[in-house]
């Protein structure tokens, strides 16, 4: 345990503000209406197979994956499909959703709702893979990359490491931590299942040092399961970034513009791993997840909620007794990488790990002053980029050198904007740079 | 005394001579072969290097002109220099001048601060392209002008400015050279280079593809796809809940009628587009 | 109304102003030593310098550039303090004002203000004064401990001046050098500041305290001060061992003159030093070599200001050739 792992390039220490770290997972309940988006993942939207008026149960397939880079969407509540409409997502853009009027819980027959832990890992790899695909699993850490693709190794590539990402380096968010505290065995079985699918012997569950309880619980469970180990990582931002975690654990680097599999690694979030367990052992599609509601203590009571996909953010905020009139910013995700929501009605998706509220006064950015060339942005950049150079070129509308500055490698972790003493919105410039580089192609 | 004087003259003169010889040699050795016509054309071009012609700069355009045939020359056009400059270029090459319609940029959005009030407050980098990646827009129109003026900043000719009353960029048709830089930079493709017909223009100043009621909820000036305009002029197409007036529709003939019959004011008819330098 | 912006949604509390404030706090020990050693005159020099710098910056931003007032970021105050630190306490006030004008008006604002200047403003002002008024700039009042109101100026030689003399005389007359040697201050005197010299450079200990404070507050990293001082120390030590000439005695050379002030507070200036770690090391080593060359092989006894200014000019070039290694890419 003295040998804590971390990534060598950049990074910084944040005030973690993990208010709800030890709060138990509460059931958020059933909102009167749920809005289930048909696109909750990277790729093509799922194809709707229900019509208004249809009766659905929990776990009923609502929309079918459309192609390989897509995922199934299931009903998260029992009730009646009311409408197929367009409502505003977190960025405010209109997205197609299936609106369901809810009634009392009623499950599809094959779903095992008993609380017992099932550790009889099926022997047939194809069966496991099929169940993962059918359950509509996507990466629940924020990217929403369909899990079946990640667990299918391309022919000319091989995998040596499976890393289960239990690191929540964003301030406020505690959903993954709460899950590890309450469902350690399920996560470990999920990791075993992923081992089986990938055909490797070992899985590493990475947890950051500021979660000693979770480390203790998971370590205790792993003693009973061969092939799952715990790696303790330093509490440094952005330790939970896929590329940073790979480097911390394996010492390898993901080549620029490539995927983790090109470095022989597969990284899965703990929430996804738990969902794998549920999908395979309990036949339960991905229709609910843990969402942290947190933020300024004067605005909300922080907690971890088991939430149905499609629940409007406002319903969850009410559950947490949030003073909605004082909200300056509502964040989907953490304060470093989250999206500031345009509408309180935006629904929770498979990717939403937390809602963070910031009060009106502290949600406004500070005035930008001129760059003093302190180089702190380059110092903290975990990708080794030079944000100051990217910003100064874009300010002069000079897009030619952007490619050579590798702006496309930016992971938008926010470390540079956070540290900048002149308060230059460097991440905004990096996003602009990425947009311009894509346009040049 | 005189000795030093002459010595000085000799030394300084000698240095000058050596430098001159060296410069001559390097100029000869590293000289770039330029076509006489190419440099002649380059001299008459406006040297704005704006890229409006589709080439990287004026020099590239001059090269393309010099290498063109009588036929392929008609496809080359400098929007900044317009007819006057193209005539000069044609004279140098001995070709005939291509005829072009007079054009200028128009903004296909009329979501003014009054018609489409702010519902949220954007606090990020005041840049349309970043704002477009971050959110739907302060007026919550997914296709409307974001009002941060990337087009104003990119315009080299000072033809665009933000109108403080409406919050929208306005085009000074007299200064606009139709170089297309604004149309290229706008993340929502709201600026369109449209012909000026007898000092008049008509176009639908809306790009919202939502259903009428939703569009109107956020903006009073939105096109609601009522198809009234299409019933007046058959050439007008209404697709994806949005009307579009093709550039072939004559503003003289339909202008007043279309503007008066549009229930929301999405159609803008400019009867007096000021233009000192014309192409026709 | 909900506020919308791109991530991140939180910022660190460190601002340009807070960084500058930390530097000022780090300069305080040296300032106190200056007051104790040189009395009221030190106060006069520093106050004149600071007031003139702030005034020039305000006048230029307000009347010439018609821009926002930038004096609140405290960078002009630091320039003023550093300029004052680089002057002898007997400096006439009007010359200080001329120096402040060169620092702020020419070296800083003419380039576009904070963040855009190529040369360290305080050093540019000092070098201008040094070349324009060599007599006044090389008269070093003798420190007079805790005698605040003493304005009678008794000049003395600086440690480096004495060393230079030894060097000149060593071949001519050994006797002369022995006389001079007794004038050399001991290590304790140099640590505490009981030697002749510019206001801020006399006490090595006070400067070390300032450096530790800046490192603790993470205002700067250790790289530039360390590599600068280490390079210089190594070079002098090697020559000392080889020649056995007291002129090169490394510890005396290290503790005397403006080396520590320059290495800790002026070579580390954000604006005029390279951005990347590798670049900073090249910059610091370059400063060390140049200081060594100027101190021992030129007419001047001191070379820190020239060394830093020369390396300042190389910063854009260093920045160009020392990009960081990008994750997942091989260094070219």
Write the layout of secondary structure elements.
The complex is a heterotrimer of chains A (441), B (280) and C (332).
Chain A: E1 25-27, E2 33-37, E3 47-48, E4 55-56, E5 61-64, E6 73-74, E7 79-88, E8 94-102, H1 125-134, H2 147-150, E9 161-166, H3 175-182, H4 184-198, E10 203-208, H5 212-222, E11 228-233, H6 242-250, E12 265-269, H7 270-281, E13 288-295, E14 303-308, H8 313-319, E15 327-332, E16 339-340, E17 354-359, H9 360-363, H10 376-380, H11 387-395, H12 415-419, H13 426-440
Parallel strand pairs in A: 1-14, 9-10, 9-12, 10-11, 13-17
Antiparallel strand pairs in A: 2-8, 3-5, 4-7, 5-6, 7-8, 13-14, 15-16, 15-17
Chain B: H1 2-29, H2 36-44, H3 58-67, H4 82-93, E1 103-107, E2 121-122, H5 128-134, H6 150-154, E3 160-162, E4 169-171, H7 181-185, E5 191-195, E6 201-204, H8 212-218, H9 228-232, E7 237-239, E8 242-244, H10 251-261, E9 267-270
Helix pairs in contact in B: 2-3, 2-4
Chain C: E1 3-4, H1 16-38, H2 40-64, H3 75-85, H4 93-108, H5 121-132, H6 134-137, E2 140-141, E3 155-156, H7 159-172, H8 174-183, H9 187-192, H10 204-216, H11 223-243, H12 250-255, H13 259-266, H14 277-297, H15 304-321
Antiparallel strand pairs in C: 2-3
Helix pairs in contact in C: 1-2, 1-3, 1-10, 2-3, 2-4, 3-4, 3-5, 4-5, 5-15, 7-8, 10-13, 11-13, 11-14, 14-15
Task: Please tell me about this protein's structure.
The complex is a heterotrimer of chains A (441), B (280) and C (332). Chain A is an alpha/beta fold and 441 residues long. Among the domains of chain A are: 125-281, Rossmann fold; 376-440, no CATH class. Chain A has helices at 125-134, 147-150, 175-182, 184-198, 212-222, 242-250, 270-281, 313-319, 360-363, 376-380, 387-395, 415-419, 426-440, and strands at 25-27, 33-37, 47-48, 55-56, 61-64, 73-74, 79-88, 94-102, 161-166, 203-208, 228-233, 265-269, 288-295, 303-308, 327-332, 339-340, 354-359. In chain A, strand 7 and strand 8 (94-102) form a beta hairpin. Chain B is α+β, with helices and mostly antiparallel strands and 280 residues long. Chain B has two domains: 36-93, 3-methyladenine DNA Glycosylase II, Chain A, domain 3; 103-270, Alpha-Beta Plaits (2-Layer Sandwich), CATH 3.30.70. Chain B has helices at 2-29, 36-44, 58-67, 82-93, 128-134, 150-154, 181-185, 212-218, 228-232, 251-261; strands spanning 103-107, 121-122, 160-162, 169-171, 191-195, 201-204, 237-239, 242-244, 267-270. A two-stranded antiparallel ribbon of chain B has the order 1-5. Chain B is elongated, with a radius of gyration of 26 Å. Chain C is mostly helical and 332 residues long. Chain C folds into two domains: 16-137, no CATH class; 164-319, no CATH class. Chain C is built from 15 helices and three strands. Chain C has helices at 16-38, 40-64, 75-85, 93-108, 121-132, 134-137, 159-172, 174-183, 187-192, 204-216, 223-243, 250-255, 259-266, 277-297, 304-321; strands at residues 3-4, 140-141, 155-156. Chain C has a two-stranded antiparallel ribbon with strand order 2-3. The longest helix of chain C is centred in the first third of the chain and has 25 residues, at 40-64. The chains are: A alpha/beta (441), B alpha+beta (280), C mainly alpha (332). Strand 2 of chain B pairs parallel with strand 1 of chain C.
């Amino acid at each position: 345990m003295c040998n804590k792992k971390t990534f060598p390039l950049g990074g910084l220490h944040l005030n973690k503000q993990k208010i709800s770290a030890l709060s138990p997972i509460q059931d958020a309940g059933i909102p009167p209406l749920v809005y289930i988006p048909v696109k909750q993942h990277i790729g093509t939207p799922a194809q709707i197979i229900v019509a208004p008026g249809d009766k659905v149960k929990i776990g009923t397939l609502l929309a079918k994956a459309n192609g390989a880079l897509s995922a199934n969407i299931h009903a998260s509540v029992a009730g009646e499909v009311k409408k197929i409409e367009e409502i505003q997502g977190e960025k405010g853009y209109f997205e197609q959703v299936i609106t369901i009027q809810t009634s009392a819980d009623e499950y599809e027959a094959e779903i095992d709702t008993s609380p017992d832990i099932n550790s009889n890992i099926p022997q047939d790899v194809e069966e496991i893979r099929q169940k993962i695909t059918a359950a509509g699993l996507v990466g629940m850490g924020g990217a929403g990359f369909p899990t079946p693709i990640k667990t299918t190794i391309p022919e000319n590539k091989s995998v040596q490491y499976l890393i289960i990402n239990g690191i929540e380096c964003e301030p406020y968010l505690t959903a993954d931590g709460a899950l590890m505290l309450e469902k350690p065995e399920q996560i470990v079985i999920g990791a075993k299942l992923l081992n089986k699918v990938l055909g490797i012997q070992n899985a590493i569950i990475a947890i950051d040092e500021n979660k000693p309880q979770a480390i203790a619980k998971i370590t205790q469970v792993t003693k009973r399961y061969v092939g799952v180990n715990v790696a303790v990582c330093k509490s440094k931002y952005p330790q939970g970034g896929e590329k940073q975690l790979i480097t911390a654990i394996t010492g390898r680097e993901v080549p620029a513009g490539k995927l983790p599999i090109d470095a022989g690694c597969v990284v899965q979030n703990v929430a996804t791993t738990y969902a794998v367990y549920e999908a395979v052992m309990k036949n339960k599609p991905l229709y609910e997840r843990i969402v942290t509601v947190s933020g300024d203590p004067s605005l909300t009571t922080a907690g971890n909620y088991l939430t149905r996909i499609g629940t409007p953010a406002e319903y969850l905020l009410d559950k947490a007794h949030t003073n909605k009139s004082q909200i300056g910013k509502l964040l989907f995700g953490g304060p470093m990488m989250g999206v500031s929501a345009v509408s309180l009605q935006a629904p929770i998706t498979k990717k939403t790990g937390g809602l963070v509220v910031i009060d009106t006064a502290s949600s406004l950015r500070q005035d930008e002053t001129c760059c003093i060339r302190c180089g702190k942005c380059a110092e903290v950049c975990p990708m080794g980029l030079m944000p100051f150079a990217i910003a100064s070129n874009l300010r002069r509308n000079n897009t030619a050198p952007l490619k050579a500055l590798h702006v496309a490698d930016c992971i938008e972790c926010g470390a540079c904007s956070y540290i900048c003493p002149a308060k230059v919105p460097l991440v905004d410039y990096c996003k602009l740079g990425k947009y311009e580089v894509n346009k040049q192609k | 005394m005189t000795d030093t004087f002459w010595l000085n003259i000799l030394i300084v003169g000698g240095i000058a001579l050596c430098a001159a010889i060296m410069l001559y040699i390097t100029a000869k050795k590293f000289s770039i072969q330029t076509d006489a016509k190419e440099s002649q054309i380059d001299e008459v071009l406006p040297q704005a290097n704006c890229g409006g012609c589709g080439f990287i700069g004026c020099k590239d355009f001059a090269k393309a002109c010099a290498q063109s045939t009588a036929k392929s020359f008609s496809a080359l056009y400098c929007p900044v220099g317009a007819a006057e400059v193209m005539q000069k270029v044609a004279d140098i090459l001995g070709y005939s001048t291509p005829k072009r319609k007079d054009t200028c940029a128009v903004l296909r959005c009329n979501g003014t601060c009054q018609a489409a009030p702010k519902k949220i407050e954007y606090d990020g980098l005041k840049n349309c392209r970043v704002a477009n990646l971050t959110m739907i827009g302060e007026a919550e129109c997914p296709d409307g002008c974001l009002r941060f003026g990337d087009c104003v900043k990119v315009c080299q000719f000072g033809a665009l400015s933000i109108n403080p009353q409406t919050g929208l960029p306005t085009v000074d048709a007299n200064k606009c050279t139709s170089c297309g830089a604004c149309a290229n930079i706008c993340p929502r493709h709201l600026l369109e280079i449209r012909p000026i017909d007898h000092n008049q223009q008509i176009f639908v100043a809306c790009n919202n593809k939502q259903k009428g009621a939703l569009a109107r909820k956020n903006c009073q000036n939105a096109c609601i796809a009522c198809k009234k305009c299409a019933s007046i002029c058959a050439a007008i197409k209404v697709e994806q809940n949005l009307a579009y007036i093709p550039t072939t529709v004559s503003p003289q003939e339909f202008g007043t009628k279309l503007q008066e019959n549009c229930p929301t004011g999405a159609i803008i008819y400019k009867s007096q587009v000021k233009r000192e330098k014309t192409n026709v | 109304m909900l506020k919308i912006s791109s991530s991140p949604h939180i910022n660190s509390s460190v601002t340009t102003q807070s960084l500058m404030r930390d530097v000022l706090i780090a300069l305080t020990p040296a300032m106190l030593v200056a007051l104790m050693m040189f009395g009221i005159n030190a106060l006069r020099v520093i106050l004149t310098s600071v007031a003139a710098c702030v005034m020039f910056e305000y006048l230029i931003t307000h009347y010439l550039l018609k821009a926002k007032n930038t004096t609140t970021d405290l960078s002009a105050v630091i320039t003023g303090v550093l300029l004052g630190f680089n002057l002898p306490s007997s400096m006439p006030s009007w010359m200080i004002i001329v120096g402040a004008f060169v620092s702020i008006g020419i070296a800083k604002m003419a380039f576009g203000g904070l963040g855009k200047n190529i040369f360290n403003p305080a050093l540019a002002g000092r070098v201008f004064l040094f070349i324009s008024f060599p007599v006044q700039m090389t008269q070093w009042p003798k420190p007079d401990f805790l005698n605040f109101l003493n304005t009678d100026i008794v000049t003395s030689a600086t440690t480096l001046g004495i060393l230079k003399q030894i060097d000149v005389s060593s071949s001519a007359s050994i006797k002369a050098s022995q006389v001079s040697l007794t004038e050399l201050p001991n290590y304790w005197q140099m640590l505490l500041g009981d030697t002749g010299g510019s206001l801020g450079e006399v006490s090595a200990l006070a400067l070390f305290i300032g450096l530790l404070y800046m490192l603790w507050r993470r205002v700067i990293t250790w790289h530039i001060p360390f590599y600068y001082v280490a390079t210089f120390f190594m070079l002098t030590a090697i020559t000392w061992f080889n020649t056995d000439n007291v002129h090169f005695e490394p510890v005396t050379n290290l503790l005397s003159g403006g080396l520590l002030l320059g290495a800790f507070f002026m070579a580390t200036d954000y604006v005029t030093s390279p951005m990347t770690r590798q670049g900073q090391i090249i910059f610091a080593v370059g400063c060390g070599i140049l200081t060594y060359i100027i101190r021992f092989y030129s007419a001047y006894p001191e070379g820190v200001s020239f060394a830093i200014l020369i390396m300042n000019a190389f910063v854009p070039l260093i920045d160009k050739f020392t990009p960081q290694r990008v994750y997942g890419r091989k260094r070219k």
